[in-house]
Design brief:
The structure holds two protein chains of two kinds. By secondary structure, chain A is of the alpha+beta class. Chain A contains 18 helices and 20 strands. Classes of the chains: A alpha+beta, B alpha/beta.
């Protein structure tokens, strides 16, 4: 036992070095329970315990207190088709026994003196005991198939069901019990009348144990508590796994395992000491007998489905199907047929179970090689379970004398399954935790990326805005193309004509001077226009600052304007009320003045009244002001708010139309102000205010 | 030979100045106006023998002015030469549709204008 657990510990250590502590606790628990379960099995059964031979067992030299209980196994006298009592034996010594029969064993396929017994029938067992002791003895009877009367000498001291010679007179029942023998000494006979018409095969199929009374009672109590403990553990395990499935339905192996646990839980109170019978004593035999067989039969397809669900990739689908179909068919037959018939299916089901076990072990070995999750623990639990079953079998047929361990094996197997399933669930949980963590990280990372992307987009958007602003400007320029062409061609045409006239000769020097000045002025106009377009398309203005007095530039402009205004019959006036110096871009400020003047001129070229235009310069605080006053039609109210917007050119049919927009840009670039004051029908005054130069 | 009168309708003062100077040298009488509206008024006032008309002008453009002039009996046959920086086929077409006799795209040389004018005033 110890060696087994040491090796298990070692194997566990190999696999899970970091979990030594947990494993240690689990194994300590197992050691404790294994001692509990095996108590009274191994220790108390001595290798030299006597056997019944030819209907007699000699226990005179057996020390029950020191060596424990004895199973009354061996060869009993058997009287087939006879129900005999002690009186019969004493009155009629010539009663011929059928022969000697092996106990424990079922009748079916048993041959005595050439006569083969039937599974259903009746008969009498007799065993003589030779005893020599002064202690209270007791018998422990498990189940006998399927009704019996037990006599010690002439006294009937135990019976279950009703023994009869036909199915009508026989009533089956079983109920493990302890029989107090008291202080018995010398030779006693145990006579057991047995009948069976209820299951496939009856007889003394379990050992009858004899021992010191307190030991026997203790065995019974341990048996009951062991069965109850097992049932309770399995029930809780079943509940636990079914709950797991209830909350997480992706893994069907949990519910299958839960069902398997329930079945085994039920089975553990239907076999062994049959605790269920103690709890519900009024239940008919047929009920719990059926239930007991069902738990065996139904456990098989359930376990097949469960195994498959554990290793779906490795379990051969066809073999799985065969196993499942055959075992399910057997179960269906069990459900619909009477117990007398279906108990004959026990053997085929056991054979099928053997095949299933062998195949499952081979599959599990493959999965261990493939290093599948939980395969090793599965294999370990399964092999231990099979090993204990095999051990019990060998022990049962007295080849070895080790004790019964299959209950412990089952418990170990169930626990290994629970271990795998809980590991699976916790792995899932761990994965979820990891995923959550990585998800959180990813979210953080993505958020960061997104915010970077957003910043980038904002940047890009700004660029696009700039671009589209510049595209808009270019597009406006495109729309103005014809106007621009016109505005360029006009001065070019003028220049060409004047140049030809000058070249043509016949001109006085004054005339030549005059024409050349026209050419110069037209070139200025062209240059102004190109700058205006350039400034507009670039969207910003780079000033070339010069320091100059306002009177100089105004006088210059005035000379040119005189011609234009004269042609349009508008009176022009320039008043330098106060001269001042400015740090300004000379060409651009000149453009502003020309623009304002041209606007006024066009506004006033309908000849409907005497028009006038006055340019006036003065200072105001730290600003130099130039005002442009006309007596034209004035700015319409709806135009006022957008008068400085690009291409809002009011009433202008041609021309660049950037006029006031560019004027404002230029004045803004000088940190100045351009404002206006207009009354419809009376005229308009534009003011440009520029900061006065500090170097006066 | 009686002096012929030429009316120059253009908003660009230098252009008017140069045309005027060219025609004066050839002894034509000159009248000027700075837009279509004023030009019609001037035409009614001086009844010119020929009109030089710019197209793009404030208040009233040259095409509208020609259409109006052509509706008046006294100007039905007055030669009108359109002078414009707009030199596209459409512009030429529009000008002839309106009633122009000739079309001279800017920039032009003084000789070309004079040649064209003389064609109509011989």
């Amino acid at each position: 036992m110890g060696i087994l657990f040491l090796s298990v510990t070692y194997l566990f250590k190999m696999n899970h070095k970091n979990k030594k502590y947990t494993i240690f606790i689990i194994l300590s628990m197992f050691m404790f329970w294994s001692i509990f379960f095996s108590y009274g099995c191994k220790k108390k059964i001595h290798i030299d315990s006597p056997k019944a031979t030819e209907g007699l067992i000699d226990l005179q030299n057996w020390d029950f207190v020191a060596n424990g209980t004895v199973n009354l196994d061996g060869r009993w006298e058997f009287y087939n088709q006879k129900l005999l009592s002690n009186i019969d034996f004493e009155q009629n010594h010539s009663i011929a026994k059928t022969g000697f029969i092996l106990v424990p064993k079922k009748w079916e396929d048993t041959t005595i003196q050439g006569e083969t017994l039937k599974g259903m029938g009746y008969g009498t067992y007799r065993l003589k005991l030779l005893l020599r002791n002064k202690i209270d003895l007791a018998l422990k009877i498990k189940t006998i198939g399927t009704a019996y009367n037990l006599y010690i000498n002439e006294n009937l001291i135990s019976k279950e069901g009703k023994v009869g010679d036909s199915s009508d007179t026989s009533i089956p029942d079983w109920n493990p019990t302890v029989i107090d023998l008291g202080k018995v000494d010398g030779e006693i006979s145990i006579i057991v009348q047995v009948s069976n018409f209820s299951v496939k095969s009856g007889g003394l199929w379990d050992s009858i144990q004899i021992g010191e009374k307190s030991q026997i009672i203790l065995l019974r109590e341990i048996g009951i508590s062991r069965d109850t403990f097992l049932a309770g553990s399995l029930f809780i395990m079943g509940l636990y796994h079914i709950s797991i499935y209830y909350f997480r339905r992706t893994d069907k192996s949990t519910i299958l395992f839960g069902i398997f646990c329930f079945i085994m839980s039920l089975r553990s109170i239907l076999t062994g000491e049959i605790v269920l019978k103690k709890i519900f004593s009024g239940l008919p035999w047929i009920f719990y007998a059926n239930l007991e067989y069902f738990t065996f039969f139904f456990a098989i397809p359930t376990s097949v489905v469960y195994y498959e669900s554990c290793f779906p990739d490795d379990f051969n689908k066809r073999i799985y199907k065969y196993f499942l179909i055959i075992s399910t068919l057997i179960c269906l037959v069990v459900v619909v047929s009477p117990i007398q018939f279906y108990t004959s299916l026990l053997r085929p089901m056991q054979i099928l179970t053997m095949f299933i076990s062998i195949y499952t072990i081979s599959v599990v070995i493959i999965t261990v090689k493939k290093k599948r999750e939980g395969a090793f623990v599965f294999l370990l639990g399964y092999i231990i379970f099979m090993f204990t079953i095999f051990n019990d079998f060998l022990h049962n047929i007295k080849i070895i004398n080790t004790g019964y361990y299959s209950v412990l094996g089952l418990f170990f197997f169930i626990f290994s399954q629970a271990y795998i399933l809980s590991k699976k669930s916790s792995l899932v949980l761990t994965r979820v935790e990891e995923l959550t963590e990585s998800l959180e990280k990813k979210v953080l990372q993505r958020t960061e990326e997104l915010s970077k992307e957003r910043d980038r987009l904002i940047g890009a958007n700004l660029q696009i805005e700039k671009l589209s602003e510049s595209r808009k400007r270019l597009s406006i320029i495109g729309q103005m193309a014809s106007g621009i062409v016109h505005d360029i061609k006009n001065p070019m045409s003028t220049i060409k004509s004047f140049a030809e006239l000058v070249r043509g000769g016949n001109l006085s020097n004054i005339e030549k001077e005059e024409y050349l000045s026209y050419i110069s002025r037209e070139i200025d106009r062209l240059s102004d226009m190109t700058y205006e377009i350039l400034d507009f398309s670039k969207g910003n203005i780079q000033l070339f600052i010069q320091n100059e007095s306002i009177s100089k530039i105004l006088n210059e402009v005035y000379e040119f304007l005189k011609i234009d205004f004269g042609h349009s019959q508008i009176s022009l006036q320039l008043e330098i009320q106060e001269d001042f110096r400015l740090d300004f871009d000379r060409d651009r400020i000149r453009r502003v003045i020309f623009n304002l003047a041209n606007n006024a001129k066009e506004e006033m070229s309908d000849g409907v009244k005497e028009y006038s235009f006055k340019i006036k310069a003065y200072t105001e605080d730290s600003f130099g002001v130039v005002s442009f006053t006309d007596n034209g039609h004035g700015v319409r109210e709806e135009v006022k708010p957008k008068i400085f917007e690009a291409y809002s050119s009011e009433g202008k049919e041609y021309g660049i139309g950037l006029g006031l927009f560019m004027c404002k840009q230029i004045i803004d670039a000088h940190n100045g102000y351009i404002t206006f004051d207009s009354k419809q029908g009376q005229g308009t005054v534009f003011y440009i205010k520029l900061p006065l130069s500090e170097n006066k | 030979m009686t002096e012929k009168t030429i009316l120059i309708i253009d908003d660009q003062a230098p252009m008017v100045k140069i045309l005027a100077d060219i025609f004066k040298k050839e002894n034509y009488k000159i009248a000027t106006a700075s837009n279509g509206l004023l030009g019609i008024k001037k035409a009614i006032e001086v009844t010119p023998d020929l009109i030089i008309m710019d197209v793009m002008m404030p208040v009233k453009n040259g095409i509208d002015a020609i259409i109006e002039l052509r509706e008046m009996d006294q100007f039905k046959k007055t030669p009108i030469i359109v002078l414009t920086a707009k030199g596209g086929l459409n512009d030429i077409h529009t000008a002839f549709e309106a009633g122009a006799n000739a079309f001279l795209p800017k920039p032009f040389s003084p000789g070309d204008v004079l040649l064209e004018v003389k064609k109509y005033l011989q």
